[in-house]
Each structure stands twice: as structure tokens, then as C-alpha cells.
Design goal:
The protein has about 325 residues and is of the alpha/beta class. It has three domains: about 120 residues, 2-Layer Sandwich (Nucleotidyltransferase, domain 5); about 140 residues, ATPase, nucleotide binding domain (Nucleotidyltransferase, domain 5, 2-Layer Sandwich); about 40 residues, no CATH class. It has ten helices and 13 strands. It has a five-stranded mixed sheet. Helix 5 crosses helix 7. About 40% of the residues are buried.
């Protein structure tokens, strides 16, 4: 029976599920689009894994991402950590000399500064869409170019063209104008990649020391045009790890392994069978005091298995999953 540690990264666009063994090798990696239904995607992803690996034994589970609390409740996580911690923890074991991590996901982006193997500083953007993968997806659709071909096409550009990238609205207007001036799709896409990189460095790298070695992680790292634009702006090679799009999940799996090996306790993983049951999240506003906390609770088969959001613990302290 193969023993693996499970890492689950639930983001706004995708859910990533990774299995790591005791040798810190990736046994499996699933990159799944959420399509607005992350709970169902987790269930379907784990169902596929169970069917592919019949003799699988889950030794520990870690969750991360914007949906880490709900995912942790659902699967029975042993450790729940934020994305900054997980992306750093995934990178350092394989690239111990790394000093800077660039991460761009579907709807947010991060810059993580590593010194002596630990996070010393970071910045995160969750507001401006112009520096994220969803912006590129939208422009690829508008230009009728498959997003998978975006990066390679950018590298074929013969001329440089500057696209205004401070805002999605301005960027689209500028792209239309450049098309009307006769610039090719390749040149416009390359300009778009450069605009995204300028926006990223302006927003996240303004007061940060970006020193090599530099890693580029997240789904957007698949785009060669963005990687090349980073290298031109930073004047240094930018490394894209083999599992660049699931590094958060890798970090979650590795931290779960560390947690359970240190404590010597058994995993809280609920088991594949219980994951097939229905989960129902609801929310309400507590009127117990002036805080007006939004309280979120999750029910499974009519029983409340988790509550969070109440600052005083009025509801959450009384729940045992």
C-alpha cells in the first residue's frame, strides 16, 4: 500500500491536488478548474485519485489557498496554512539557494522574499486584475488565440510595442488602437506580457530587493512570454520549476508530512467514502455584539461539522468535526 501526503490548494480559478511520498517525490498532481464549484471539484478530483491508485493510504493532509478553511474542514486537514507559507515551503527544499519567488495565479499575485531559507518579506495583490492570469485569459479570448499558445506566440514578435498595462480597461483600449495601427497579434501579445510584468513589479516589487536566484510559480508561469519579459526587466534568468502550477499544493503536502512526523499522531483525514457525502455551507450575521461577525458554517448530512468567522468563538468553540 502506497503512503502519500495530500496537499490541496483551493484558489479562485483552480483547485490543485498533489500527493507526495516520504522521499519528497510527487506521486500525482492534479490541476483542476473550479468553474465556480470548488467543493464538487475537490470531490471529483479525489474520486479520480482513489480510482487511479487503488492501494493508496493517506498519511496526512494539508490545505492552502483562499478556500483552505472550507477544504480543510471537508477533507479533515492536519494543517491549514496561507499561500505565502506554502509556496515558500515548496520551493526551498528543491531550490535551497532561492532568494525571490514570483507567483501569479488566476486572480491574485504574490512576491516572496527568501533569506536563509525562510520568508523575510512578501507582498500580495488581490485587487488589480491587470496583473493576473484571468486578465490574460480574457485577452486571449478577445484576440481568438488559445491561452496555451499565448507565450510561444509572444516570442515570435518582430517588433516591440508598448501596451498600457496599469488597468484592464486602458490595456484593452490600447490593444485595440495598436491593432488598428497594424501591429501583429504576436507583437500585441508580447506587449501585453511586458505590460503585465511592469504592473506586477510596480505594484509588488516597489520596495523589495529582487535578487537571483528567482523562481516563477503559479499557473501563469506556463506562459513563456511572461517568463521572458521578467528576464528582460530583471536582467537575470528566471527559473520555472517542473511543477510550477501546483507549488502551493506541494508545500501543503510537505508541511502536513512535517507536522505528522514531528507529532507522531494519526492523520485527521476523513477518508474517501465520507468525502462523497453532501456538504452544505451557509452563513449568517451574528447579532451578539457590535462586531456583527459573518459566521460561516458547514453541514454534512444535517450535522454541523465546522464553523468559523466568529471572533469570540461563541459558535466555533462548540463544534467538534
Amino acid at each position: 500500500m502506497e503512503k502519500v501526503y495530500l496537499g490541496i490548494d483551493v484558489g479562485s480559478v483552480s483547485t490543485n491536488i498533489v500527493g507526495m511520498d516520504d522521499r519528497e517525490s510527487v506521486v500525482f498532481a492534479k490541476y483542476l478548474r473550479n468553474d465556480g464549484q470548488p467543493l464538487q471539484v475537490i470531490q471529483e478530483g479525489l474520486k479520480k485519485i482513489r480510482n487511479e491508485f487503488e492501494n493508496l493510504r493517506i498519511a496526512g493532509v494539508g490545505t492552502t489557498g483562499s478556500g483552505r478553511l472550507l477544504a480543510g474542514t471537508m477533507v479533515g486537514a492536519d494543517i491549514v496554512k496561507n499561500e505565502i507559507t506554502e509556496h515558500a515551503y515548496a520551493a526551498v527544499p528543491f531550490y535551497p539557494e532561492v532568494w525571490t519567488i514570483l507567483e501569479i495565479g488566476g486572480q491574485d499575485s504574490k512576491l516572496i522574499v527568501i533569506r536563509n531559507g525562510v520568508v523575510s518579506d512578501f507582498s500580495m495583490n488581490t485587487v488589480c486584475a491587470a496583473g493576473t492570469g484571468s486578465f490574460l485569459d480574457h485577452q486571449a479570448e478577445r484576440l481568438k488565440v488559445p491561452i496555451e499558445d499565448f507565450g510561444a506566440l509572444a516570442l515570435t514578435a518582430k517588433k516591440r510595442v508598448r501596451i498600457a498595462g496599469r488597468c484592464t480597461v486602458f490595456a484593452e483600449s490600447d490593444m485595440i488602437a495598436k491593432q488598428q495601427f497594424g501591429f501583429s497579434k504576436a507583437e500585441i501579445i508580447n506587449g501585453l506580457c511586458e505590460a503585465l510584468v511592469r504592473n506586477y513589479l510596480s505594484n509588488l516589487g516597489r520596495d523589495k530587493q529582487i535578487i537571483a536566484p528567482v523562481l516563477f510559480q503559479g499557473g501563469v508561469a506556463a506562459n513563456q512570454g511572461i517568463q521572458s519579459a521578467f528576464e528582460r526587466e530583471l536582467h537575470t534568468p528566471v527559473i520555472v520549476p517542473p511543477h510550477f502550477n501546483v507549488m502551493g499544493a506541494i508545500g501543503a503536502a510537505l508541511l502536513a508530512r512535517k507536522q505528522l512526523r514531528k507529532g507522531g499522531s494519526a492523520t485527521k483525514f476523513r477518508g474517501f467514502e465520507r468525502l462523497l457525502l453532501d456538504f452544505s455551507p451557509t452563513s449568517f450575521e451574528c447579532e451578539g455584539c457590535s462586531n456583527g461577525c459573518e459566521v460561516i458554517q458547514v453541514e454534512q448530512d444535517g450535522r454541523v461539522i465546522a464553523i468559523w468567522g466568529d471572533k469570540c468563538g461563541k459558535y466555533s468553540n462548540g463544534v467538534s468535526a
